[in-house]
């Protein structure tokens, strides 16, 4: 069983000096510059050994000018988890290091976050659109994306 | 030592058995060999034969009326329009020239009730949320037409079907619905009399 | 000229050929494209291209209530509608703290295991179709699948787009006689599996084509977040039913079958063994179904009036062992009846990460069956 968020915070900060983690409920908020250090520590060191990244996604907060990345980590070795990490990025220029060199499974998920939200992942081996077609402009899942007119005939206007 | 091809031959025994099961003479042969039966022909030759569906089979909604079509249960509350996931229902309440709602049988009623067949997902959420048991699911599925707007948009007249029809296609569900309506109509009868 | 020396003959000019496998192709399981670079018939590079079935499910989910998302989840992995509903119901229950009725818990798990039978049967049928067994195993599989779909229709009203599971239990109780019918089908299933195995497992053609093809090493499988039968065929013991212990699974006894090599044959065989374990779970669950309501009162209230459900602010990640892998739903609530963020962690999408590694060095015919063994459904890959 994983320890509580407070215990995780003190354990990680103890092993990695210079890294600050803020627990929000059960979620650990990590600074963007510390992401790779923390993830590498969580992946290779006991008692964590988080070798499985289940979910990488983003949440858009236009009113607070930020975009959050959410990571759900589990351990197939120890069969524990989830550990939820949140990284708060500046919405005007969302850039963060990619975790694909650590966990191959993040490759397609980070491409999807880039495609739909516009977050740039530095160090990703192949960052291009995955669900939208090449040449598509805009990032559809952002809250301020305006859907273009759908001109199929409908009996009643929406 | 395993014979090369024994796996393929074993598989062929299975196919031969299924083949034999399809014909009367084959079934007799299998019975004589005391082999338990498998399913033979399972194809239903549509449209000459039609599959018998379960009672709960749902396809497209319809509006319920009691006795006469103008005594429909719908009061145009628009809850189903709001909750419909693909937003395929369009309702306008019947109003007079001044914008006041008209009433029939003591209730408001819809002037317009349109559902778009090609958008409806058959999800049944409109039935689940209706507080008046006014809309239920029909099980007719041969509804193809030639025109996108004229034939694919079902108006109120086409949607109205009687409560008797509802009992005919869904006896179990109609029974439960009738119980719910009776419980709503007679709350006074269930309150216990005060002790003398 | 001796064919074995062609590759090393210096004066023979070779060009790499770039081919599109898909998007319309009967054996790519939907609209899915692979850009393959071939050297002769051998794959040198393979890039999967997806997005042809992208229907913007996540953005639609942000505009409608939680309950109204259920019919859309049916269409995610359109083979396993009941499982998808189950995943979303778990996530909403975590988010809103909704209790579950016990009978509803058993009915949901029974539907989920029947869905597993449906999926694995159909997938093996499709895999054999891809190998060239032109229809026979596929139609045998579909004949059994029809019986289970008839059960789904009797309970929910629809064969595939069931929309049956709700937070708090299931939408309505199963009709009279359904449990007995299900028991009869489940008891007869091992006989069908024996027949299916007699047709396929020892078949020399299947073995020649499927063994030592598309080997997925253990470490790559874990690193690439592969889940489901594909992971277990590579020898990793990770089954969410055992790890998370959700629903009634802690009370059922079943094994988790593992493969050894991680090739296409192991992925096929692990699915057969998983079906046998599912039959065991179903037999135990059908015997132990309690009486009582099929949905808790809070769940019934939410189902009847979706707009009144306002979960507290926060987020929740609910995951299940869907037949294809880990299906997860991530919900962020801002206190309103519509979710603020609704994300689906789709197993087929993430299992495709390793497609290139599996296919390198193999021939085009092997690529088709490797894709068949990965078991993708485009509704889930593209959402």
SSE layout and pairing:
The complex is a heterotrimer of chains A (158), B (196) and C (383).
Chain A: H1 5-15, E1 21-24, E2 27-30, H2 35-44, E3 52-61, E4 66-75, E5 80-90, E6 95-97, H3 106-117, E7 120-122
Chain B: H1 6-21, H2 24-32, E1 60-65, H3 79-83, E2 89-93, E3 103-104, E4 107-108, E5 110-116, H4 125-129, E6 135-138, E7 153-154, H5 156-159, E8 160-162, H6 163-169, H7 171-185, H8 187-190
Parallel strand pairs in B: 1-8
Antiparallel strand pairs in B: 1-6, 2-5, 3-4, 5-7
Helix pairs in contact in B: 1-2, 6-7
Chain C: E1 17-21, E2 33-39, E3 42-49, H1 57-63, H2 70-74, H3 81-96, H4 102-131, H5 136-156, E4 165-166, E5 169-170, H6 178-200, H7 204-210, H8 218-223, H9 229-233, H10 240-243, H11 264-288, H12 297-304, E6 314-322, E7 325-333, E8 341-345, H13 347-351, H14 355-359, H15 364-374, H16 378-382
Antiparallel strand pairs in C: 1-2, 2-3, 4-5, 6-7, 7-8
Q: What would you say this structure looks like, in words?
A:
The complex is a heterotrimer of chains A (158), B (196) and C (383). Chain A is 21% helix and 28% strand. With 158 residues, chain A is α/β, with parallel strands linked by helices. Chain A has a five-stranded mixed beta sheet, with helices on one face. In chain A, strands 6-7 form a two-stranded parallel ribbon. The radius of gyration of chain A is 18 Å and the shape is elongated. In chain B, 33% of the residues lie in helices and 16% in strands. In chain B, α1 crosses α2 (24-32) and α6 packs across α7. In chain B, the strands form three sheets. Chain B has a three-stranded mixed beta sheet. A three-stranded antiparallel beta sheet of chain B has the order 2-5-7. Chain B starts with 5 loop residues before the first helix and ends in a 6-residue tail after the last helix. Chain B is elongated. The mean pLDDT of chain B is 83. With 383 residues, chain C is of the alpha+beta class. Helix content of chain C is 48%, strand content 12%. Chain C is built from 16 helices and eight strands. In chain C, the strands form three sheets. Chain C has a three-stranded antiparallel beta sheet. Chain C has a three-stranded antiparallel beta sheet with strand order 6-7-8. In chain C, β6 and β7 (325-333) form a beta hairpin. In chain C, α4 (102-131) packs antiparallel against α15 (364-374) and α6 (178-200) runs antiparallel to α11. Chain C is globular, with a radius of gyration of 22 Å. The model of chain C has no long low-confidence stretch (mean pLDDT 88).
């Amino acid at each position: 069983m994983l320890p509580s968020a407070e215990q995780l915070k003190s354990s990680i900060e103890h092993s990695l000096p210079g890294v600050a983690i803020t627990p929000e409920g059960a979620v650990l908020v990590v600074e963007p510059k510390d992401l790779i250090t923390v993830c590498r520590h969580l992946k290779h060191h006991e008692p964590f050994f988080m070798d499985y990244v289940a979910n990488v996604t983003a949440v858009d907060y236009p009113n607070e000018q930020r975009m959050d990345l959410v990571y759900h980590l589990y351990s197939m070795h120890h069969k524990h988890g989830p550990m939820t990490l949140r990284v708060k990025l500046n919405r005007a220029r969302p850039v963060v290091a990619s975790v694909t060199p650590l966990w191959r499974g993040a490759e397609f998920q980070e491409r999807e976050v880039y495609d739909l939200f516009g977050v740039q992942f530095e160090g990703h081996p192949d960052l291009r659109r995955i669900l939208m077609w090449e040449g598509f402009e805009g990032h559809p899942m952002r809250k301020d994306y305006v859907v273009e007119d759908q001109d199929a005939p409908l009996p009643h206007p929406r | 030592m395993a014979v090369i091809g024994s796996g393929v031959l074993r598989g062929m025994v299975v196919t031969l058995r299924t083949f034999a099961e399809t014909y009367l003479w084959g079934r007799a042969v299998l019975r004589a060999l005391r082999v338990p039966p498998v399913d033979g022909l399972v194809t239903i030759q549509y449209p000459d034969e039609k599959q018998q569906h379960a009672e709960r089979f749902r396809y497209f909604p319809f509006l319920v009326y009691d006795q006469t079509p103008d005594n429909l249960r719908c009061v145009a509350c628009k809850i189903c329009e709001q909750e419909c996931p693909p937003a395929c229902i369009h309702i306008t309440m019947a109003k007079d020239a001044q914008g006041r709602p008209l009433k029939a049988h003591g209730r408001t009623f819809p002037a317009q009730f349109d559902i778009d067949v090609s958008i409806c997902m058959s999800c049944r959420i409109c039935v689940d949320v209706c507080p008046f048991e006014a809309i239920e699911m029909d099980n007719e599925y041969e509804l193809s037409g030639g025109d996108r707007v004229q034939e694919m948009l079902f108006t109120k007249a086409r949607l109205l079907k009687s409560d008797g029809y509802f009992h005919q296609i869904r006896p179990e569900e109609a029974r439960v619905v009738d119980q719910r309506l009776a419980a709503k109509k007679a709350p006074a009868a269930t309150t216990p009399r005060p002790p003398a | 000229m001796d064919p074995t020396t062609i590759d090393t003959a210096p004066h023979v000019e070779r060009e790499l050929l770039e081919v599109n496998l898909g998007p319309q192709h009967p054996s790519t399981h939907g609209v899915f494209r692979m850009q393959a670079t071939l050297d002769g018939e051998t794959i040198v590079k393979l890039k999967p291209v997806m997005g042809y079935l992208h229907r913007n499910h996540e953005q639609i989910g942000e505009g409608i209530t939680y309950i109204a998302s259920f019919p859309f989840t049916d269409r995610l992995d359109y083979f396993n509608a009941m499982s998808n509903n189950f995943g979303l119901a778990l996530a909403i229950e975590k988010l809103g703290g909704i209790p579950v009725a016990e009978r509803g818990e058993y009915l949901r798990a029974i539907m989920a295991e029947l869905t597993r039978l449906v999926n694995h049967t159909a997938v093996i049928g499709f895999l054999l179709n891809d190998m060239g067994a032109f229809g026979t195993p596929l139609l045998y599989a579909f004949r059994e699948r029809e019986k289970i779909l008839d059960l789904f229709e009797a309970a929910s009203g629809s064969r595939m787009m069931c929309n049956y599971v709700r937070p708090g239990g299931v939408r309505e109780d199963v009709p009279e006689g359904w449990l007995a019918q299900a028991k009869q089908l489940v008891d007869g299933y091992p006989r069908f599996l024996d027949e299916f195995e007699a047709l396929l497992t020892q078949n020399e053609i299947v073995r020649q084509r499927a063994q030592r093809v598309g080997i997925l090493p253990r470490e790559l499988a874990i690193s690439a977040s592969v889940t489901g039968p594909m992971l277990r065929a590579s020898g990793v013991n990770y089954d969410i039913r055992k790890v998370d212990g959700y629903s009634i699974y802690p009370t059922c006894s079943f094994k988790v079958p593992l493969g050894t090599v991680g090739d296409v044959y192991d992925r096929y065989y692990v699915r057969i063994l998983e079906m046998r374990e599912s039959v065991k779970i179903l037999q135990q669950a059908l015997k132990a179904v309690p009486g009582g309501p099929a949905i808790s009162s809070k769940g019934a209230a939410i189902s009847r009036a979706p707009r009144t459900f306002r979960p507290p602010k926060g987020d929740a990640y609910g995951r299940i062992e869907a037949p294809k892998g880990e299906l997860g739903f991530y919900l962020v609530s801002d206190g309103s009846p519509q979710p603020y963020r609704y994300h689906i962690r789709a197993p087929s999408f993430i299992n495709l990460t390793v497609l290139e590694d599996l296919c390198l060095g193999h021939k085009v015919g092997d690529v088709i069956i490797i894709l068949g063994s990965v078991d993708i459904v485009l509704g889930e890959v593209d959402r």
